[in-house]
Write a structure and sequence with these properties.
The protein is mostly beta strands. The chain has strands at residues 2-7, 10-12, 18-26, 28-39, 46-51, 57-59, 67-71, 77-82, 91-101, 106-110, 114-118. Strand 4 (28-39) and strand 5 form a beta hairpin.
Length: 120
């Protein structure tokens, strides 16, 4: 079993910053790409940012220049630094990743999400 657990969400005023963290644990052989997605009320889940095992990154146009995705030294953690937050960034943020378990099966896992609310 593999678990992804997010932390770092909360309430922030427009223009503020938050840093989300996601830690993967369990029967992990290797972690390939990891990423952050978000879902606002009444909207579909959307990609925010992804990062490959080699460090290549990809961002949604709406967050480019404001958000930065990075991986920890242990490679089983991923972070999302969010700056210049806007009310439209309000959503539940989910961590996800393609993880190869010790059985060599590769599965796309999701965390349970963490709420980010941007409001004055």
């Amino acid at each position: 079993q593999v678990q992804l657990v997010e932390s770092g969400g909360g309430f922030v005023q427009p223009g503020g910053s938050l840093r989300l963290s996601c830690a993967a644990s369990g029967s992990i052989f290797s972690i390939n790409d990891m990423g952050w997605y978000r879902q606002a009320p009444g909207k579909q889940r959307e990609l925010v940012a992804t990062i490959t095992s080699g460090g290549s990154t990809n961002y949604a146009d709406s967050v480019k220049g404001r958000f930065t995705i990075s991986r920890g030294n242990a490679k089983n953690t991923v972070y999302l630094q969010m700056n210049s937050l806007k009310p439209e960034d309000t959503a539940v943020y989910y961590c996800a990743g393609h993880v190869t378990s010790t059985t060599r099966a590769t599965t796309h896992y999701w965390g349970r999400g963490t709420q980010v609310t941007v409001s004055s």
